[in-house]
Amino acid sequence: MNLFVFVKRVPDTESKIKINHETNSIVEEGLNFVLSPYDEYAVEEALQIREAKGGQVTVFSVGPDETQTILKKCLAMGADEAVLIKDGAGETYDSLRTAKIISQVLKTKHTQFDLLLFGKQSVGADSAQVPSMVAALLDLPQVNVVTDLEIEGNAGSALREIEGAREKVTFMLPAVVSAQKGLNEPRYETLKGIMAAKRKEIPVVTLEELGIQPDELTIQLELTKIESPPARERGKIIEDEPGEAAKKLAEFLHQDAKVI
Amino acid sequence: MILVYVECRDFKIKQSSLEALSEAKRRGDEIGIETTAVLVGHAVDALAPEVFRYGASKVYILENALLAHYSPSGFTQALVSLIEEIKPEIILFAATSMGKDLSPRLAAELGVSLASDCIQTAAKNGKLEVKRPIFAGKAFASFMLNSSPQMASLRPNVFPLAEPVDGHGETIKKEVVIPENQVKDKVTEILKAEGAELDVTEADIVVTGGRGMKGPENFDLLRELTAVLPHSALGASRSAVDAEWIDHQHQVGQTGKTVSPSLYMAFGVSGAIQHLAGMSSSKFIVAVNKDPDAPIFKVADFGIVGDLFQVIPPLKEELKKILSE
Fold it and tell me: Which ipTM score applies to this complex?
C-alpha cells in the first residue's frame, strides 16, 4: 500500500489569537505552531495500515520552511518519507488554492498511491474543504470525518460521523479519507524515531517545479476583515443554598432570558 | 439567480436548509435576483411545497434511483449538470455534515472557492460578503466572494427562519443520467447513535457536562435534564470525552463541535480556552461550578457557585414546572 498523508502546521489550540488590524492578519509572533490535531489521526491511521498490510507512508505539507518541524514529527512517529511543498503565500483561507497545489503534486510528481489521508479540517482556518476538493480534482471517491476505516484488497469501507448517527460508506481505492477524533489513538514519537528523523533529508518541491502558473492560484476569497468576537460580559454569579439557587436560575431563564 | 441546496434525510427537509433558504431569499430580494432551490435524491418531489413556503420561486428536482442514498461523487455529478445549465450567480448550502462534505467537492468541480460555515451574509454591489469564524470562534474573518458562481455554506442554527408563506412555484424535474461507475462513494447503511438524540450543532439548548460530572454514570443526570427541555442536546467538554465518559460526538470546543444555541448550560465545566471558543457565540450561557474562579463564569450570563449534584435535581423540577404552565 502506498499511503500519502497531508498535514498542516497550525497554532496550537491553547493559543490566544491576536489580530493585527493594519495588516488584517493573525499575529504569528509568540504562537506555538504544531501539527494540526486531526492530522495526527491521519498519520496514525497510515502507520497502522502499513503495519497491517505493508507499504510505505509519505507525508506532505504545503507551507513555509518552518513546516519542516511538523514533517520531522511525522517522521519521528514512523512515516517513511516527508515532502515539503514550499509555498510562501501564508494563510489565504482559500482551500481551492491548496487543493490545486496538492493535486498538481499528485498528477506530476507523486503519481502512485492507494490512499490519500487528511485530517477532517485544519485547526485554525477550520474550512474542512481540502480533502473533498482534492478528491474532486483527481476524480476519486471521498469519505470525510471518518471514525472507523477498513481496507480489504482494493476496496474500502468507512464510518463517517453525521448528525446523531454514523454513515457507512463503501468505495474503491485509490480514495480520499479524512480523519476524525476517535479513529485511533495517535502514538508518541520514540527517541529512536526522533534521532532518525533529525538525520532524514526532507525534499522540497517548489510551485515553479510543479509548473503551476500564478494566475491558476488567484485567491477568490478576498479577505476584507479579521476581528475578535464580541466580548461577553460577566453576568450574575450567585452563591446560595442549592434549592434557592436552582429556583433563581430557572426564573432567570424564564423571565429574563426568555429561553424557557 | 441564487440556488440553495436543500438537504433531505429520511424524506424530511433539514431545518438548516430552510434557514439557508430564508437567508438566500433575504439576500436575493436585496440584490434583485430570483431565489431557487434544488433537491437531489429519489422520490423527493413531495417535498417541493415546503420549499416554496420559504421563498423559493422554482424548485429543481434531480431524480435518480442511484441517488436514493447519499454519494458525494454522485450528487456532485448531478448538481454540476444542473448548474452548467441554469448558471446561478450564487450557490448556498447549509453547513451540515452533508453540506460540508458535498459543497467543497462541487466547488472544486466548478473551479470556484467556497466560504464554509458562515454566520453572516451581506449584499455588496450585487455580490455577497460573508463572515465566518476562524480558530473555532476565537476570531471572525470576512470575505468578498469573487468567484463565479459565488459559493458559501451557512452554519446551522444561526440564520433566522423566515415566516412561512402560502407560496407556490414551478417544479422542474430533471432526469439525471449518471453512469453507475460515476457513483464512487456510496452510503450503504446509517447507524443511529444511542436513542434518537439531537446533535449539539442543531439543538436550541445544549446541556454540557465537564470533569465536574465525576464519572460516566452521572451523565444520566444531564440526560434527564435534556429529556425535560425541548429541542435540547447533550454536550461534553474535552476532559469528559478523553476520560471516555461519553462519545466524542458530544464534544464541544476547538477539537469538537462549535455550537451557537439559544441556551448553553455548562455543568462542572471549567472553561478552557478551547471550550470557550466553541460555545461563546451561544445567546445565553449559564454555568454551575464549585470553583468561583472557573473561567466559564467570565462568559456566563448567570452562574451558580455550588455543587452541581445538589443543584440539578431542584433545577429540573423548577424547569418542569415552568414548562408545564
Answer: 0.97
**In contact, B7 and B96? CB cutoff 8 Å:** yes
- Together in a domain, B242 and B152: no
Which residues on chain A are in Cβ contact (under 8 Å) with B184? 140-141, 171-172, 175
The CATH classification of domain A2-217, taken from the options 3.90.1180.10, 1.10.443.10, 3.40.50.150, 3.40.50.620: 3.40.50.620
- How would you write the pLDDT of chain B (325 residues) with one tens digit per residue? 999 999 998 889 999 999 999 999 999 999 999 999 999 998 899 999 999 999 999 999 999 999 999 999 999 999 999 999 999 999 999 999 999 999 999 999 999 999 999 999 999 999 999 999 999 999 999 999 999 999 999 999 999 999 999 989 999 999 898 998 889 999 999 998 765 578 999 999 999 999 999 999 999 999 999 999 999 999 999 999 999 999 999 999 999 999 999 999 999 999 999 999 999 999 999 999 999 999 999 999 999 999 999 999 999 999 999 999 8
Nearest CA-CA distance, residue A143 and chain B, Å = 7
Same domain, B50 and B123: yes
C-alpha cell at B14: 433539514
- CA distance readout (Å), B71 to A26, B245, B302: 37, 33, 45
Q: How far apart are CA A71 and CA A61, in angstroms?
A: 7
Q: What's the burial of A241, exposed, middle or buried (CB within 10 Å: 0-12/13-18/19+)?
A: exposed
Among the partner-chain residues A124, A144, A169, the one whose CB lies closest to the CB of B135 is: A124
Domain count for chain B: 2
The domain of B307 spans: 205-324
Write the CATH number for B20.
3.40.50.620
